[in-house]
């Protein structure tokens, strides 16, 4: 049996980058060959098909965004933690010269309605963020830092929507308006708390 001469994690990272830039449909096998440095036969023998590699890329992205979830479980002011998350996402968007947005949001917009496996991955990622926000908001309501006017679930869903909206809006903004628009969205969202 032949031993693989490449690191599957590095290949997945490279594939994730090309899917993130171009989307699933616009990414060809040739794009993946060029980006990963693997031959077609190595790609197919390792990942079976483009769909499986895309699933692995989405999973890899989920690992990369783990820091956002960890931030929300940190000690400190609930409002400050949510603000840090929003402004970190804005910073990421402002420094991304390719305007890729969020790979999970992109998958949701492109494929979730057509592919059950992709839909499950998208839902899992949104749920993970929602649960972290909901838990943090409950903590803030229990301490009196956050108003109990809205349920923790409603606020968590609102912030998941705000985060994804920031990422989608960023893709459609001009360079001149991006920072102003995204910052205004975050400031209004934070006033809800």
From TrEMBL:
GO terms for MF: DNA binding
Residue intervals passing through the bilayer: none
UniProt keyword annotations, A-Z: DNA-binding, Transcription, Transcription regulation
Domain spans labelled HTH tetR-type: 5-65
PANTHER family: HTH-TYPE TRANSCRIPTIONAL REGULATOR YJDC (PTHR47506:SF1), TRANSCRIPTIONAL REGULATORY PROTEIN (PTHR47506)
Alphabetical list of InterPro entries matching this protein: Homeodomain-like_sf (IPR009057), HTH_TetR (IPR001647), Tet_transcr_reg_TetR-rel_C_sf (IPR036271), TetR_C (IPR011075)
Domain of life: Bacteria
Stated name of the protein: HTH tetR-type domain-containing protein
DNA-binding region: 28-47
